[in-house]
């Protein structure tokens, strides 16, 4: 009888957690951190990372046949965790007393990811300035290499200098010296420059109002 009470008590506790929290999201976050730390090799800060995914029944929209539009953004959380852990980016930011705030995101959908279809997400840094790091993510179908969606994310760093963080990671990787690191900073892509301009216009309008 006591075992029955314990069993049903545990079941009830788990159900309560699911009601109060999106429990599987936090469990998956923990799993991503552990997997990136223990099972994957370190990555140079300017290299591209890749994580695999599959569209499950928990990901689909009300048409019941392809991934919900909002789910793309949610999946990026796990891609970013993998990138930040493997490159050492998050550790370097915390080491310098900084923090991360998502400043803006834009996504362009090109083709549905259908139910039970496999995909992978690529993540790479495409530009940075003193305050922000800009990343590009792509949802790609493995079978034909088709890019289903492209996402631009602006990550704002607080209490630290983004340019210094990236430079330190480049130098600490032993792949380059300070001068070489500075020369590796890419030019801002045209589409990103236009997006940054759009965000600045939006901010100016909001300040006026």
UniProtKB/TrEMBL annotation:
Belongs to the THEM6 family. PANTHER family: PROTEIN THEM6 (PTHR12475:SF11), PTHR12475. It comes from Exocentrus adspersus. Keywords: Membrane, Transmembrane, Transmembrane helix. This is Protein THEM6. The chain crosses the membrane at residues 6-27.
